[in-house]
Amino acid sequence: MSVDSGLQVRGLRKRYNNGVEALRGVDLSVGPGMYGLLGPNGAGKSSLMRTLATLQLPDAGSIHLDGVDVLRGPDHLRRRLGYLPQQLGAYPGVSARDLLDRFAWLKGRTDNRQRREEIEALLDKVNLQQAAHRALATYSGGMLRRFGIAMALVGSPRLVIVDEPTAGLDPAERNRFHRVLADVAAESIVLLSTHIVEDVENLCSRLAVLAGGQIIVEGRPADLLAAEQGRLWEAPFSRGESLPEALHVAASPQGSRVIVHGERPADPRFSPHAPRLEDIYYLALAQAGEAVDA
Ligand SMILES: Nc1ncnc2c1ncn2[C@@H]1O[C@H](COP(=O)(O)OP(=O)(O)OP(=O)(O)O)[C@@H](O)[C@H]1O
């Protein structure tokens, strides 16, 4: 990717009035496709998303979209941005079609015919044609998220920022939402912030882990996994047995499945464990000295 294309973030810092340093020098290069931003609660993901969406100013650093300085001229990005926040502001009594229509009008889609065509195409894209006449109050969590994506896509944005989209969705709704997002990523830059590792595993061609306001690992999932091949081990432990120091521990019907990192463990019960993105995530946090509840 040329330095002039995509989203380029350098040295971004943000300290809130209460003294919390939410971003402590974030560098990020995001090209077309879907980019995953992972991190535990409080890592700074929403702070980064809000700053990139120009909803708040950083204290230091730069943001460029396709070579244009966003902090000097935020309108360039705003005109090209679709933003799906954690919580959609609700207009419960309004139908999806009407709200989308008003929103598109506010975004400058003043030609009635073009606006209606765009809205119908968006409703189709997010699979809400059948329910478009219904009040938003009757929507499930998954439908609301898909509606949020339709809102974010008004005006065919170059950059789509999606903050924690799948929390609380059942597997079928999550799947549907993922398929919509994957379609969107075929045409624009999508930055997906989440603490659900599987979302990134399923969707993203590149990812970063943010912790304590800093990027602690970055790369393509396949490369990150390959780098840990042969260095992860797992063993079952019964309920009540004392557990060794672990990278992370997964519950199993018999007790626990313990995953450790490093040279072959002395305990012969351990066998090779094929690296998963979850392991990379825990490893990055451990190496950065972040306490995790594994
Ligand atoms: N408006 C604010 N004023 C003061 N502190 C804030 C504000 N917003 C966030 N913080 C603090 O900044 C840090 C980073 O928060 P942020 O919400 O960006 O993290 P996050 O990774 O999105 O976490 P979560 O997954 O829990 O939403 C936290 O310590 C949080 O308490």
From TrEMBL:
Domain (ABC transporter): residue spans on this chain: 7-237
Domain of life per record: Bacteria
GO molecular function: ATP binding
Xref: InterPro entries: AAA+_ATPase, ABC_transporter-like_ATP-bd, ABC_transporter-like_CS, P-loop_NTPase
PROSITE patterns linked to this entry: ABC_TRANSPORTER_1, ABC_TRANSPORTER_2
CDD domains per UniProt: ABC_drug_resistance_like
Entry annotated with the keyword Membrane: no
Keyword vocabulary terms for this entry: ATP-binding, Nucleotide-binding, Transport
Similarity field: Belongs to the ABC transporter superfamily.
Entry protein name: ABC transporter ATP-binding protein
Source organism phylogeny: Bacteria, Pseudomonadati, Pseudomonadota, Gammaproteobacteria, Pseudomonadales
